[in-house]
Write a structure and sequence with these properties.
about 270 residues; alpha+beta; 4-stranded antiparallel beta sheet; 8 helices; rod-shaped
């Protein structure tokens, strides 16, 4: 009789109803607005991070380029220079080709690292020849200028910054565009022909080299001693009024004659 008492049944029914309501309330937040907002918030954060990474990578790739100059033929072998340009500046220079074999190996090992450093420091092709490696230095500068020209063709900012030696005017007019090479007439001497070639840029001699000089026997030693000095003197003096090298008077005289002829052709 107690188990079926009406009051007991009412109490049990009420307790069951309350328990059901409590259970529903405890389960509802798991799938409610807070949960939905948390799930929705995670997706945009992930998307933003995914977009940021490619943008950074893309900017880095377009800012750095590698340009290889044309091969410059020299008396002792080809020279070719490759540049890395970043942010409009030369950040690295290297010779991918240089004279090899015999004494050339020693001269290349001595000269090329210096020329690489000079190219980065000068930010142009107006670099000094390395003493004892005149031909390699000349070829290096030719190929370096070619690389700068290519960099300018693909991106004006990179090449103009690279070619600017110091003044803004020189950079804007570009050492590359007006640069030209002129070869003087052959000067005949008692020991053989002498012929000089000059590179003129912006109205100045930036490079001088003897493409012909006395050879054979004692002449080889005198030429090796005199020609590098004469080349440097021509660039320093910016004219053919240079001193003769002691012990190589005939070679010096022929050099000056051919140098003057080259300057006349260049209009300088």
């Amino acid at each position: 009789m107690r188990k079926s008492h009406p009051v007991r049944r009412v109490v049990l029914a009420t307790a069951a109803t309350v328990s059901g309501i409590v259970l529903l309330l405890s389960l509802k937040p798991a799938s409610g607005p807070a949960s939905a907002q948390a799930g929705a918030g995670a997706a945009p954060q992930q998307t933003a991070a995914a977009q940021e990474s490619p943008q950074g990578g893309s900017g880095q790739q377009t800012g750095t380029r590698t340009v290889t100059g044309e091969v410059a033929k020299t008396q002792y072998g080809p020279v070719q220079v490759r540049l890395t340009v970043s942010g409009g500046k030369i950040t690295r220079a290297e010779a991918v080709q240089a004279p090899k074999g015999g004494l050339s190996d020693q001269k290349t090992a001595m000269a090329v690292p210096k020329l690489n450093q000079e190219a980065v420091a000068a930010q142009s092709a107006q670099i000094d020849a390395v003493s004892g490696a005149t031909y390699t230095s000349g070829g290096y500068r030719q190929s370096l200028q070619s690389a700068l020209d290519k960099a300018k063709a693909t991106s004006g900012g990179a090449a103009s910054s690279g070619s600017a030696g110091g003044s803004g005017a020189a950079g804007s007019s570009g050492a590359a565009a007006p640069a030209r090479t002129v070869t003087g007439n052959v000067a005949q001497t008692q020991y053989g022909p002498v012929q000089v070639r000059v590179t003129v840029s912006g109205g100045k001699i930036t490079r001088a080299e003897a493409v012909q000089a006395p050879k054979g026997g004692l002449s080889d030693q005198k030429t090796a001693m005199a020609v590098p000095k004469l080349n440097q003197e021509a660039v320093s003096a910016q004219s053919a009024n240079i001193d003769a090298v002691s012990g190589a008077t005939y070679t010096s005289t022929g050099y000056k004659q051919s140098l003057q002829s080259a300057l006349d052709k260049a209009g300088g």
